[in-house]
What does this fold into?
Amino acid sequence: MIGSVSPGLVLILGALLVPFLPGKLRYAYMLALPVLAGLQLYGLEQGNFAQTEIFGYTLTLVRVDKLSVVFGTIFLIAAFLNVIYGLHQRDAMQEVAALVYSGAAISAVFVGDLISLFVFWELTAISSVFLIWASRSERAIRAGLRYLIIQVGSGVILLAGVTLYAQQTGSIAFGHLGLTNLATGLILIAFGIKAAFPFLHNWLQDAYPEATVTGTVVLSAFTTKLAIYALVRGYPGTEILIYIGAIMTVFPVFFAVIENDLRRVLAYSLNNQVGFMVVGIGIGTPLALNGAVSHAFVHIIYKSLLFMSMGAVLHRTGTIKGSELGGLFKSMPLTTLFCIVGAASISAFPLFSGFVTKSLILTATAEQGYVIAWLVLLFASAGVFHHSGIKIPYFAFFAHDSGLRCREAPLNMLIAMGIAAGLCIFFGVYPDPLYALLPYEADYAPYTASHVLSQLQLLLFSALAFALLMRTGLYPPELRATNLDSDWLYRKAAPALVRRVMALGGEVRDGAVAHAKRWLEATFLQIHRHHGPSGILARTLSTGSTVLWVVVLLGLTLLMAYL
Amino acid sequence: MDDAHSRHGPGAPEPGNGHWLYRPRTVNGIFWGLALICAVLGLADLFYRRHTIFAFESIPGFFGIFGFVVCVGLVLGAKQLRKILKRDENYYDR
It folds into this structure.
């Protein structure tokens, strides 16, 4: 243990050395970093450390409590798996970006004040965009820019909220905030952008599928779950979150069914899963909050696993479009197996990790009497099984044989997927170590006959619906297409509006210019008429008549003088 | 390469239909097996008392019927959604 240094800083500072290390040494070093950070985490005692006073406000760089430890732990597990998964690539930019990004998210979880939170909040945005840009395509660069604008915007709104909050309360401590006034409202919106609330969500589906094979896996773990951590800390029991979360679980499901890019399907289902957590935070009972936290924990593992398996497919075949894939189970049997484990986990099949955490949220929602929210969550549970549980493995590895033949995924990818799949099953079968990590006091037994049988019924009848729709040809085929989502507003509608306004402004300007021109021309014509070469005032007169006029003028003057 | 495969031309990838998993018998077997498991799970509701919070949860087969109906609704709804939302693949790149 190195004093009271934040485990996140171990990764951030450690990452700076990565580009200077050669070959094998670099791999060993990158694998050691998350382990070192983990030792640092578990060497820290509970409490606040590394505090400094600035302008009368206390900055707390390290706050250790059960909530920060559980998120720190899962973020470090994710960082470790990501390093293994990315070992085949030789791209220092991605390696550094991934470590700094993970470190920033971990640091953000451990800080105890809102200003430090803002700093690491922005660092996650800036470091992560390089994982998108690392694709080095025109498309990725544009998507990355859109992502960066929205993420940095979230930070700016956070800063505005924090400034107001500090002014009103005189404190910048990050504890329970609650939705009470403009300040906490702004902070909630900032958290909401990162958590991908409805209409603030589309940066996720827009940018994640454009990142590199490893980049998407890394991205999927941290940003949204950092927001979930912040919401658990600041807004537990805020009722509006129940409705926001419920909407989040539902609408992405429809998009996921018709989406062709399988990594984008997973981005939609990420949105849906985060919705479950948001509902849990809104309910706010110890059981519900434990549900949100534990769901975030296992979600990071199975979501990474699913993105890893799709990444492996993209890495080997060069495409991730459902319309071009199929039949890959013969070429990539292990990847297929790991993908199915991830699919079973996200679908919350008994004995897989999603089952032992999602049911906490559902039970807490029912216990508090939110019938409609509960039914919505039940619908979303069936829906997520439909598009992530069945559609992803089915269209990638089975369905009609695309004729694609490739090699099995690289060994390092298989190891990362194998560990993730192992963890999915481990926590599904034996949830006690996970439950022991949870921050609140609540008892829950997932494996009762009622829970298991009703969940199996829900899932298998959903599978039957899928099979029946497939057999009858009613299931919509995978098509090469773009589906409009809220990003249409800023990618098409807003630019079109600006063009219209510019065009209209242009017309007004052209009209005004033409009018001014006509007026000027008329004026010049008038001047020309009087003063021009043939104008009356430019006419030349003979000397005699001039003398005559002078005499007349003098005479008139004399006359005036005597009058 | 036998006759069944050679009609795809030399160098063409081998179609998956030859694999046992793609045979109609297997596909039918999977489908009816799934239907059978569903039937058993539905009937199981008659033989145990579900621990419920809402009264309607104790309707036999509630979770199964709910799952089946919403999934069919989801897919048909999403199909309709395609009519409104579907654009060309390069819609944003133009």
In short: Residues 1-235 of chain A form one domain. The longest strand of chain A covers residues 47-54. The two ends of chain A are 115 Å apart (CA to CA).
